[in-house]
Design goal:
heterodimer, A: 243 residues, alpha/beta, 8 helices, globular, B: 474 residues, alpha+beta, five-stranded mixed β-sheet, four-stranded antiparallel β-sheet, 11 helices, 55% helix
Chain lengths: 243, 474
């Protein structure tokens, strides 16, 4: 049984530890924007702070950041809508910043494709850790390619193809798929996946896993509504099954 | 028993009693009329025959001839005739006794005293039953009334079979019973038709009331007619109007208070975000005052978090995010995350117990109970859990002095602290209230007692959520 305390998780590439990350930070409250921009800069990141969703999308095109941290409540188009527009044609990791503690925000945000969320007031170190966790690239391994039907997972090139076509996955989605395909046929609990992929300490929000599984299914399953590769294990979690 | 059944039963019983009474009376009347007709015709006919064939004076030696003629004249297929010559006796008083003896031996049927006495002077009859059939037994003297100073009493017995009358009566009875059955059927049909008219509105009302009870406040029913049931329908509709209005208002207030909690939450958290971030930046620079501010800011953050959490419960905005949880793992992780060692907290429970609940809320409850025990009680704190009533029962016991008796009933109230002087502690004063609300949200229970050794014992029970609930949540 693979419990959530299983330490044999996918080995994580440490390249980002201590590295400068270019962050797009969208927050409408001036002092919160200034404070977090300052705190993240002090932690060594290159932060582009914007006050509105429109400005944020503009900066996204101009600066090509590595990650977007979006406040949910924004004037004009809100953080969830910004996230949705980013997801339309980009695999840029997104972390949402919610202040209302409203479960609906979380659900909508995850549906819009956010990789993770944090609740205000967030300690800069915690936000830093989440940013690094979301950005961490999956470890390249020598065990190279595995084919599951027309789905090919190339662990050395970190590429996934479906029927010869590239499948574009966010880092989180890729790591989830790699974790699930690490031991095909074996069910994994949501909490295990949260620890292995999101590096959350127990108890994590299992909806992150559910939302991410939905997104991966939409990209790799023939019929996302009737998944065959990533199956839900009632009363347990998820299992990758090779066809 | 349903109202309809009872009404129909009452109808049928009344109809049955009436029909049976009527048919009973007519049976008695018809039977009497039939028998009287037979008696009258038979007696008249026999008497006339006797008059015709019995001479006023019988020539000596002519008795046998008379007797033969009489017997021949009287005999028909329905009758049996006996003639007995009873020698006259001086002791008239014993005559009837002898008549009875003669009747019994000749006819084989006992006759009454009155019959035997009266048959010496007139024609008498008596109904007898022999081998399941009724017969009319007629007795008289086979002689002219006058000139009977004679020496003998020629007793004449005629038994007339009543078989035909019996058959007629049986036919009549059958007809009566058929009529009764029809009457009951008609009564039943009418009862059902009548009760339908009364009960349909009642059933409609019942359905509507049930719908109302299930939360469909737009339920209304038709108000046709002018009877009491229409009044009832009107009252029902008015009540439903008021309920709908009130529930609408309550829901609006509910939504407003939920919005308020969300807004307050946002308004408080945004500046706190800046403060927490700034305090951390300042504390990094090594200033003691800044470190103090950082600590206090974090405390303020916790307090705000707890206040928001409790208001969310008050506004009914709290929801469950369910997952299948291995309780042993969850408890271990909770203690681990807070840095509580096995020396301080001992855990005991089955390693494989899986319960479907909200793991983050379980974490909050266990952390609050254990934290409370460590702060206000004394180590070692014992956490024990076991499966109980389709869920998990978890107890947290400490070795401290226990909760003072006067605080015990108030312990889950907000901002209640056991110490008389409010000691500064990490607690917000809301931890146990939040734990209780979280247990309630699961449909579970949380209670406190003082153990036999004096320490406080908190007992938590959480039911395993079922799959349907998950669908509802999703």
């Amino acid at each position: 049984m693979s419990g959530f305390r299983d330490t044999r998780r996918t080995k994580i590439d440490k390249t980002h530890n201590g590295d400068v990350v270019s962050i797009l930070f969208v927050e409408d409250d001036p002092s919160a924007r200034a404070a977090l921009e300052l705190a993240l800069s002090r932690l060594g990141h290159s932060v582009t702070a914007r006050a509105t969703g429109e400005d944020g999308l503009e900066a996204l095109r101009a600066r090509r950041p590595e990650i977007a941290v979006l406040d949910v409540m924004l004037p004009g188009i809100d953080g969830i809508e910004v996230c949705r527009r980013i997801r339309r044609d980009d695999t840029l990791p997104v972390i949402l910043l919610t202040a209302r503690g409203d479960d609906l925000d979380v659900v909508l945000g995850l549906e819009a494709g956010a990789d993770d969320y944090v609740t205000k007031p967030v300690e800069p170190r915690v936000l830093d850790a989440r940013i690094r966790a979301v950005l961490r690239r999956a470890e390249q391994s020598h065990t190279d390619r595995s084919a599951y039907g027309d789905l090919v997972v190339d662990r050395s090139a970190l590429k996934v193809t479906k029927a010869g076509q590239d499948v574009r996955l966010t880092p989180t989605e890729l790591r989830l798929l790699l974790e699930l395909t690490r031991r095909p046929g074996q069910a994994m609990t949501r909490q295990h996946l949260l620890a292995a992929v999101w590096e959350h300490t127990y108890p994590g929000d299992s909806r992150l896993v559910d939302a991410c599984v939905q997104r991966v299914r939409a990209k790799i399953e023939d019929e996302p509504a009737e998944p065959r590769l990533i199956q839900t294990v009632r009363g347990f979690g998820y299992r990758f099954t090779a066809p | 028993m349903g109202l309809r059944t009872r009404l129909a039963a009452a109808f049928v019983v009344v109809a049955l009693v009436a029909a049976l009474l009527a048919s009973g009376i007519s049976y008695v009347l018809v039977r009497r009329a039939l028998l009287e007709r037979v008696q009258d015709t038979e007696i008249t006919e026999i008497r006339q025959t006797v008059l015709r064939y019995a001479p006023v004076t019988t020539p000596p030696g002519g008795e046998e001839l008379v007797r033969q003629q009489l017997l021949a004249a009287l005999a028909t297929s329905d009758r049996r005739v006996w003639m007995i010559d009873l020698p006259a006796d001086r002791q008239a008083a014993r005559l009837d006794g002898r008549v009875r003896t003669a009747a019994a031996s000749a006819v084989g049927v006992p006759v009454s005293v009155v019959f035997s006495r009266r048959m010496l002077t007139e024609a008498v009859f008596q109904r007898v039953r022999v081998r399941g059939h009724s017969y009319l037994l007629i007795g008289m003297l086979a002689a002219q009334a006058q000139g009977q100073a004679g020496r003998t009493h020629p007793l004449l017995f005629v038994s007339v079979s009543l078989r035909r009358e019996e058959q007629e009566l049986a036919q009549f009875t059958r007809a009566l019973l058929i009529a009764d059955g029809l009457a009951v059927l008609v009564a039943l049909t009418m009862a059902l038709a009548a009760t339908r008219g009364v009960l349909r509105p009642v059933r409609v009302l019942g359905r509507a009331a049930r719908a109302l009870g299930e939360g469909d406040f737009s339920t209304r029913i038709g108000e046709r007619g002018r009877d009491e049931l229409t009044d009832l329908a009107r009252t029902f509709n008015r009540t439903a109007d008021q309920l709908e209005h009130m529930v609408g208002e309550l829901r609006a207030k509910d939504a407003a208070s939920r919005r308020f909690v969300a807004d307050v939450s946002h308004e408080l958290r945004t500046p706190l975000t800046s403060m927490v971030a700034m305090a951390e930046v300042l504390a990094e620079e090594g200033d003691d005052a800044a470190r103090l501010v950082a600590v206090e800011t974090r405390r303020l953050g916790t307090l705000v978090e707890h206040l928001i959490e409790i208001s969310r419960f008050d506004a009914g905005a709290a929801t469950l995010v369910l997952d299948d949880v291995v309780v042993a793992h969850a408890v271990a992780a909770t203690l681990d995350a807070r840095g509580w060692t096995t020396g301080e907290v001992a855990v005991d429970g089955p390693p494989d117990l899986v319960v479907r609940l909200d793991p983050r809320r379980l974490d909050v409850i266990v952390a609050n109970l254990v934290g409370n025990a460590l702060r206000h009680g004394r180590p070692p704190v014992r956490v024990a859990f076991r499966p109980e009533r389709n869920g998990v029962e978890l107890t947290v016991a400490d070795a401290g002095p226990g909760v003072p008796e006067d605080v015990l009933p108030l312990i889950f109230n907000r901002f209640v602290k056991a110490e008389a002087a409010r000691s500064r502690s990490d607690g917000s004063g809301l931890g146990l209230s939040i734990a209780l609300e979280n247990a309630g949200l699961h449909g579970g229970m949380l209670a406190v007692t003082n153990g036999p050794d004096g320490g406080a014992v908190f007992t938590l029970w959480l039911p395993s959520a079922d799959e349907e609930y998950e669908e509802y949540e999703a």
